[in-house]
């Protein structure tokens, strides 16, 4: 390293002597060295007539690190629940990310082999033949977003010095919750979500989800997309199958649908991300309308922020 640095310093100087009229920027371009390095080396040479660093020159680790350490401590003290990812972002260490370990469902042997074959066939025989693949699913969201389950952390020198309010969270067993149904497409489009506090039976599913929301969403596409519901029996009931037929919806047939495969369905990741964002907001919703508004707001903000495409 030192030899290379010395070499490039010599290169800079000799080129400078050879072409005294060239600017530092032009020299840098010629040598493929950043112009600030060229300026620094030449300035040092003019001042001290040497290419060597002075004794004790170079970056001093002490105060700089002390400063960062203090900053880290202050941030953690203010909020022990801060993740290392956000911490790194705050103190400006780029390129650090924290990832969650992926959980895979516990499929039995028969399910495993069916899932594998069907997933392969679904991909080869169906997905590749359509421009778009629409996936729909429902999930429950707690009215009090703080109650949405998920991993949370706290950081401290010792857990005894961290305030209880960062360490413990009261979970209520019977917290009220809302059901959200939404369809997302591989092209990145999402449809109008359906929110309800009640349960969804076959009739409601057909009228509120399929008729009012899925159909217009499919028709929004120039080419008919493939619809991939999950294997729940109500998605393949007789009246629903008739509805697909009557509205010429191209759907994944039941015997082609891989069982218990959440890791293959991006809609599951979408739920997880939305829930994480809502939990962070720590808000509470009043009614279905409020839930829908908060869901769409979060979606809009977060969508713009990440420009996430599935
Ligand atoms: Zn699409």
- Describe the sheet with the most strands: 5 strands, mixed
Tell me the series of helices and strands, N- to C-terminal.
Answer: HHHHHHEHEEHEHEHH
Q: Look at the structure and name the CATH superfamily of the largest domain.
A: Ribonuclease H-like superfamily/Ribonuclease H
User: What is the percent of helical residues?
Assistant: 40-55%
* CATH domain class name of the largest domain: Alpha Beta
Which stretches are low in confidence, meaning pLDDT under 50 for 5 or more residues running? none
- First and last CA, distance: 44 Å
Q: How are strands sequenced across the largest beta sheet?
A: 3-2-1-4-5
Number of domains: 3
Number of beta strands: 5
Using only C-alpha atoms, the radius of gyration works out to 29 Å
The small-molecule ligands in this entry are: zinc ion
Alpha-beta content class: alpha/beta
Q: Can you tell me the CATH topology of the largest domain? A: Nucleotidyltransferase, domain 5
**Any idea what the CATH architecture of the largest domain is?**
2-Layer Sandwich
Principal-axis shape:
elongated
């Amino acid at each position: 390293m030192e030899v290379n640095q010395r070499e490039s310093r010599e290169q800079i100087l000799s080129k400078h002597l050879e072409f005294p009229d060239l600017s530092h920027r032009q020299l840098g371009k010629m040598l493929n060295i950043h112009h600030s390095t060229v300026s620094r080396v030449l300035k040092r040479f003019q001042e001290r007539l040497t290419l060597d660093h002075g004794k004790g020159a170079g970056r001093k680790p002490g105060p700089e690190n002390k400063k960062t350490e203090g900053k880290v401590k202050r941030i953690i003290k203010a909020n022990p629940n801060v993740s290392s990812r956000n911490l790194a972002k705050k103190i400006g260490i780029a390129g650090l990310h924290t990832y969650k370990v992926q959980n895979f469902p516990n499929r039995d042997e028969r399910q495993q082999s069916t899932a594998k074959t069907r997933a392969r066939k679904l991909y080869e025989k169906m997905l590749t033949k359509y421009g778009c693949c629409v996936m729909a699913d429902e999930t429950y969201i707690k009215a009090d977003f703080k109650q949405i389950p998920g991993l949370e952390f706290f950081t401290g020198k010792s857990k005894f010095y961290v305030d209880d309010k960062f360490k413990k969270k009261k979970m209520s067993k019977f917290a009220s919750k809302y059901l959200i149904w939404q369809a997302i497409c591989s092209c990145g489009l999402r449809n109008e979500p359906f929110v309800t506090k009640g349960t969804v039976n076959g009739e409601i599913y057909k009228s509120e989800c399929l008729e009012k929301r899925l159909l217009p969403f499919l028709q929004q596409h120039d080419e008919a997309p493939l619809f991939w519901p999950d294997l729940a029996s109500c998605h393949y009931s007789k009246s629903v199958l008739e509805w697909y037929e009557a509205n010429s919806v191209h759907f994944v047939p039941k015997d082609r649908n891989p069982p218990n495969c959440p890791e293959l369905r991006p809609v599951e990741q979408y739920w997880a991300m939305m829930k994480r964002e809502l939990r962070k907001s720590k808000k509470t919703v009043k009614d279905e309308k409020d839930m829908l508004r908060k869901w769409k707001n979060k979606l809009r903000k977060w969508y713009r922020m990440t420009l996430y495409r599935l």
